[in-house]
Design goal:
Helix content is 36%, strand content 14%. It has twelve helices and nine strands. Strand 4, helix 4 and strand 5 form a beta-alpha-beta unit. Helix 1 packs parallel to helix 2, helix 3 crosses helix 4 and helix 4 runs parallel beside helix 6. The longest helix is centred in the middle third of the chain and has 21 residues.
């Protein structure tokens, strides 16, 4: 195995989106990887780079990753959970273009997860104290608990001065390995039949509530997102079929695992290993070509079950 991944700088068409998953322990990308990847991303014209993982700031080479990748694409985003930016707010604020907070799916006592949402106000304040115009967005995975208190939850995110808030269903059927389950992984997240009926009955009136007349929302986009959340919960309750998200990941994105394996999204097959092949060899290889020519979201066994929260969904405006 080569000391560095073989990222050969050969002319090729633009690869729009690149997502790196960083583990804080176990197998993970290390400092040897980031600089050659950053140079290749810049040469290939990658527009959007995202850093994800269970807790990216806890990665031992997190600072090196940020400093290597910042400025190598038009946009560098960091996907984190509430509270994870606090140990290194100064570094994060100056080395990324935007921060995406992953919210939910919440269950259990409302006061606990509402307190987490309330704490976002001070966390975002500390980030913007370092960089006033830092873009902050939220990806909110809804659940039975949050649907009951959605207006209050939105107000708390609004008080934290987020720039945008988007809604997605929770992951109910896909294991960490991407295998579909035959029954919901977290049935407590699914609203009851009565709750779903009320949600469906008052759907249009809900979008007229003052909380949705906020800078946080593009109402057309929000309506489509909430409709899919409703469809997902109905399907999980046996009242309909799952529908896939309007996903472009198979043709516009690469997802790099901590092991160096590349996929179009974290739930589909791997096409190669960046420690052994160049980006061009993988992206223009037969396996990727066959996958892209055959993928059909409507009949794929995984896509209809996907929450649809992959980073490229928030890169529509770039």
């Amino acid at each position: 195995m080569a000391l560095y991944p073989q990222l050969l700088l050969e002319p090729r068409r633009t690869l729009p989106n690149l997502t790196l998953c960083l583990n804080s322990s176990g197998k993970t990308l290390d400092r040897r990887f980031f600089l050659p990847l950053a140079n290749a991303a810049q040469f290939y014209g990658v527009r959007n780079i995202a850093l994800m993982g269970e807790n990216p700031p806890a990665h031992p080479d997190f600072a090196i990753a940020l400093r290597s990748l910042f400025g190598k694409g038009e946009n560098l985003s960091l996907w984190i959970k509430p509270g994870q930016s606090s140990p290194c707010a100064g570094l994060i604020a100056h080395e990324v273009n935007e921060i995406i907070f992953r919210l939910g799916p919440y269950s259990g006592p409302e006061e606990i997860w509402m307190a987490e949402l309330s704490a976002l106000q001070s966390e975002v304040y500390m980030l913007r104290k370092e960089r006033p115009h830092l873009i902050v967005k939220g990806v909110f995975h809804l659940s039975s608990a949050t649907l009951k208190a959605l207006e209050d939850a939105i107000h708390r995110v609004e008080n934290a001065l987020f720039d945008r808030l988007e809604f997605f269903p929770p992951n109910l059927y896909l294991s960490p390995e991407g295998e579909p389950a035959t029954s919901p992984l977290s049935p407590d997240l699914i609203p009851s039949h009565e709750e779903l009926m009320r949600y469906e009955e008052h759907f249009w009136e809900m979008l007229d509530e003052p909380c949705f007349q906020s800078w946080l929302f593009d109402l057309n986009m929000t309506r489509r997102q909430l409709e899919r959340v409703l469809l997902c919960f109905k399907a999980a309750s046996g009242r309909g079929a799952f529908e896939p998200p309007h996903c472009r990941a198979s043709r516009t994105s690469f997802y790099i695992e901590p092991t160096g394996h590349i996929r179009c999204c974290p739930r589909q097959e791997a096409f190669g290993d960046l420690r052994e092949m160049s980006l061009r060899e993988i992206e223009e290889g037969e396996r990727v070509h066959v996958f892209r020519s055959k993928i059909n979201l409507a009949i794929d066994r995984i896509c209809p079950l996907c929450p649809g929260d992959f980073p490229h969904f928030l890169w529509r405006s770039h």
